[in-house]
UniProtKB/TrEMBL annotation:
This is HutD family protein. Gene3D superfamilies: Jelly Rolls (2.60.120.10). InterPro entries: RmlC-like_jellyroll, RmlC_Cupin_sf, Uncharacterised_HutD/Ves. It comes from the Bacteria.
Amino acid sequence: MRILRAGDHKRMPWKNGGGETVEIAVSPEDAGLAGFDWRVSMATVATDGAFSIFPGIDRTLAILDGNGMVLDIEGSAPVLLTTAGDPLAFPADIPVAARLQDGAITDLNVMTRRDGLAHTLIRIDIDGGKSVPLASSTCLLLCHRGALSFRKDDESGALSAGDALLMTDAAGTAVEIDGEARCYLVSITTP
């Protein structure tokens, strides 16, 4: 397990130059935008516009803050994403345009290379104690709001808003969480 502190996340420009992304974790470490196997990042979207195209990549998006965003995904009906809604999975290599509902939003973006990996993204609200089962070898728990303490095997620690816990060799285990927080759990699998 490794704690990834919010202050250490890497800031970088979007692939299309339209904004800035905060990279939480990437594999392999220090991989660029063209060479990652998987990537977890956050971005603030302040204007309507097209998403960057990532050939061979699948993406899931969740709205962390703001009043929502409509995605126009080629070949599909427009979809409204909000902080209350479920994350949305879609291919990152087809045209997608975003329209803000009312002001800027912050999103959480998970991407995996389609030919070798798959992923899921779920929201978990913590109010007290909770045991979270881990089904994948690689899991990342992002504490978006609030604070929590965690225990897994013989290790323990704490996360504040923006911090993440990267867990490897996690399949078939669980992480025990205590606190009040809104979290997101990323699970990365080999299909």
